[in-house]
What we know:
With 154 residues, the protein is of the alpha+beta class. It has one domain: Molybdopterin biosynthesis MoaE subunit (Aldehyde Oxidoreductase, domain 3), CATH 3.90.1170.40. Helix content is 32%, strand content 33%.
Amino acid sequence: MAAPPIRVQSAPFDMGAELNAFAATVPGAGAVVSFSGLTRDLASGDLQAMEIEHYPGMTETALAAIRADALARFNLIDAMILHRYGPLAPSDPIMMVATAARHRADAFDAAAFLMDYLKSRAPFWKKEITASQTSWVTARAEDEDALSAWSKPE
């Protein structure tokens, strides 16, 4: 049985196993593209943990909408989004997207589109915990710029 196309979970995941499972569900695909994000230290250099919060139900609804948008924009066979919440250590897998299409350009573009959305608009709140402080991660201008590139022309 295939995993749901959208998962929000606290449990760790195996990137290779997730990609293999997704690829097994997309017959006819000529390309499968994936991106996995790892927890990293954004500012201080002494990250002990990252705590990710979300609102159950609202998060899944928002991710389903962006997945549907990707399926409509690009010639995809399928797409999946996996995102963790709760406490994560540095270098832990935090999220993964995978896209499948008949041609690589659609798969690459859709994966980039999903990543840009997840980075800037997905309803997750991230808090960095270091030995000396706890601080919320704020939006970065370059992430907003990347997302704006996907705006549909009026």
